[in-house]
Amino acid sequence: HDYRKVPGIKALQGMKGWFRVRMGPYRIIFFVDPATKNVEIRRVTRKNERTYKGLR
User: Fold this and answer.
1) Which residues, listed in sequence order, are joined to residue 28 by a DSSP beta bridge?
2) What Cα–Cα distance (Å) separates residue 18 from each residue in 9, 11, 48?
3) Where do the structural domains in the chain lie, given as residue ranges?
4) What is the mean predicted confidence (pLDDT) over 5-32?
5) Per-residue CA distances from 43 to 5, 25, 46 (Å)
6) Which pLDDT belongs to residue 27?
7) Average per-residue pLDDT in the chain?
8) 34 falls in which pLDDT band (50, 70, 90)?
9) What is the pTM of this model?
């Protein structure tokens, strides 16, 4: 599926395959493997200056 069809999902700029969705005060950061289409949730956190640091 195309992520743009799902409301609330945004691609992270400069990070291919990485996306985020907002759930109230929380941010769910996840990675979609383009080959297998597997989704890995990498971080669930409140938004602060460290929300997007250190993602790999």
Assistant:
1) 21, 44
2) 10, 6, 18
3) 3-44
4) 89
5) 22, 14, 10
6) 92
7) 86
8) confident
9) 0.77
Residue 50 burial by Cβ neighbours in a 10 Å radius (0-12, 13-18, 19+): exposed
Judge contact between 10 and 20, C-beta under 8 A: yes
Give the Cα separation of 19 and 39 in Å (integer). Answer: 10
| Token output for 28 | 């769910």
Query: Can you give the C-alpha Rg of the chain in angstroms?
Result: 11
Amino acid in the structure at residue 34: P
Length of the chain equals 56
The confidence score (pLDDT) of residue 21 equals 92
Contact 23, 29 (CB under 8 A): no
Block residue for tokens 């395959």:
17
